[in-house]
Amino acid sequence: MSKRNIVAIVFFAIVAVLFIFSALMVHPFGNPDSKDMDEYIIDHTQEETGANNGVTGVVFDYRGFDTLGEATVLFTAVAGVIMIFRRVKK
Amino acid sequence: MSGMSRIVKTICSSIFPLVMIYGLYVIAHGHLTPGGGFQGGAIVASALAMILVAYGSVWTMGKIKEKNLSLLESLGALGFITLAFLGLIIVVDGASVFFNNFLVNTNFLFGIAPATGSTAANINTGGILPLMNFSVGLKVIAGLFVIILVMAYASNAKEAKK
Known about the structure:
The structure holds two protein chains of two kinds. By secondary structure, chain A is an all-alpha fold. Chain A is 73% helix and 0% strand. The radius of gyration of chain A is 24 Å and the shape is flat. The model of chain A has no long low-confidence stretch (mean pLDDT 87). Helix content of chain B is 65%, strand content 0%. In chain B, helix 2 packs across helix 3. Chain B has five helices and no strands. The longest helix of chain B is centred in the last third of the chain and has 33 residues, at 129-161. By secondary structure, chain B is an all-alpha fold. Chain B has one domain. Chain A binds chain B through residues 43-44, 46-53, 55-57, 59-61, 64-65, 67-68, 70-71, 74-75, 77-78, 81-82, 85-86, and chain B through 30-34, 36, 38, 66, 70, 73-74, 77, 80-81, 84, 98-99, 101, 104-105, 110-117, 119, 121-122, 125-129, 132-133, 136, 139-140, 143, 146-147, 150-151, 153-154.
């Protein structure tokens, strides 16, 4: 077994132990450590944003600024692709 | 290369309206059911990509230019940022915040707020959320489709030159 394989196996073992420990330390499902914000959103989304779909209420109202950033990322990607593939007029 | 065989073209033409209706439904009901502007826009863009694959990029480029699609995408972005700044301009209950939902609880367009809890879906709710869904949907449709169209056309032109 080469030195490189031994290094890879040791590294894999360390990462696996870290993953297993963090998986065992996860809090039980449906019982987060702090739930103030969750309960506020569940209770107030419908009256404050008027949306039955709470996810849309969060994405477009409470965190609209984040969505603006996502839209900017898409805009930049499209601008870059069009700039690369534009037809050059000769 | 002018697209695929007649069978593929016919089947794509008959599936295309159904996929379009589904995608536009997901966009329009973004504040009621799972989905929204991004997801519905991706569905509509994949329907357009299906037509692009079936009919070829030269035919599709003859139908719609990438300049117009780019214009549509910019219009969507402009609508989104305009709605965000309208929240900063229009004062509701003494408060005007960036991304303020100024249409909710006004009984105007999309202005009805539903009761808290599980209620029947009403399309006339949500304030500015449906309008933002429409503008983001327009942006995603035009943006994704113009990327696919421009790339397909460029590779096709390179093949034709050889």
